[in-house]
Structures are given as C-alpha cells and as structure tokens.
Amino acid sequence: MRRSILAAAAAILAVGAVPGRALAQQAEVALVYRLLQEGQMVINPAAGGERRAQLGDRLRNRDVVATSANTRAALRFTDDGSILRINPGSQVRLTTGDERGAVVRTLQLEFGEVWARVNRRNGSEFRIQTPAGVAAVKGTEFLVRIDSAGGTVVITLEGVVEFFNEAGRTDVGAGQMASAGSQSDAPEARRATREELRRAEEVGGEDAADGGRATWVEVQLQHADGRVRTLMMQVPAEALRGRVQGTP
Fold it and tell me: What average pLDDT score do residues 52-78 get?
C-alpha cells in the first residue's frame, strides 16, 4: 500500500511540474490544508461571494482570507509548497503575477500575524506587504506581525529577509528582528530576544517542526454533484525523491 501511494505521488508531481512564469498566470495559487482550534476562516473571493473555508479549498489570485479570534490556519502554495501559517484575528490578501520576468507572490497583511516558510526557487520572489513596509525573501523562515498601533515587526528564524519602506531598508538575518511604526519610520535590524524567537517558532507549529523533511502531495477528488475537494498526503521527502528519480 505504501509503495502504491508513493508511486502515485511521484506521478502527480511529475505531471504537475510547470514553468514558473506559467504558474503566475494560473488563477489558483494556494490551498487550505490546516484549520485549527475553532476552525473558522472566511474566504472573500476576488469575484465575490464570501464563504466559510473548508480543508482542501483552493485560493485564487486576489482572494482574501480572514481568521476568527480563535482560529489558526495554514495555506500551502501550489507552485513550490511554501507554507503560510495565519494566526487568530488576521486578514491576508493573496496576489501573484510577473515582474521583470520573475514570479512574484505578494501577501497583503492587513492586520494580525503570519509565519512563513518559503522554499527557495529560481525566478520567484515572495513578499509580505503591510501598511508600514514590505518584507521580501527568496527562501527562509520568518514571522511578520502588525501590532495594535499599526506598526510592523519582522522576526527571521532562518535565512535573510529584506525589510524596507519609504524611509529606508535593512537586512534581517537569522535570530534578528526589525520594526517600523509607519512608512516614514526607517527599519533597523537588532538581535531578537530568546522569548521573541521562541514565540515566533511556536507560531510555525507543526510546519516549523517538520523542517521540510516531508512533502505534501495533493490529489483532487470530485463529488457526484461536481464539487471538488483536495486530499492531502504527507510523504517522507527522501522516500518520494527516490521514486521521482526511479530508484527502488
């Protein structure tokens, strides 16, 4: 049974390999794969028609998601498997498109807190935009929070995040943090405290603990009434890699 699942997963990944620029043109950019605590998250599609999120729901370009005060959620991007954890009481708009030949995903965090683990991929950029600045990365693990006064805090756990706004820019390395109260407040990196780092890691939850050792594979299921849901299977990355390469 396990061998058949791995073989199916490898086939799905092989068929799903699409050049980065083509992916930017696809309407679907991410899917909902965790709904925790109360499990109440609302999706506001760009085309209209607000609905309650369900596991396996696919999110399209410019969709807005909002978690309740007692709900944590996680999204997985369909092009490279990057993960976004959304804390309670947060709202994010997902956008994707081409910019100077690169696939650029921009998450507009309107309020709340998110944690992201971005997989490194040539020809793509990942940004989180807030009222006080933009955090841009190319492969890292970090947290972005909008505080009660509307300021932005960035904490980097792995890699480097470039945090910039109209007043200036700074590189925030692993174990560092930076903040800006508004677009006119230049960010400056400093060492994060042990408590700040611990809390940032906690937001990542199971996705931070996994550390990329497993790969999520998706299988679409269509109900008799035409509704489509996505079944997620977590497969050990090493085992799947062997199947993709054709080794026993």
Answer: 95
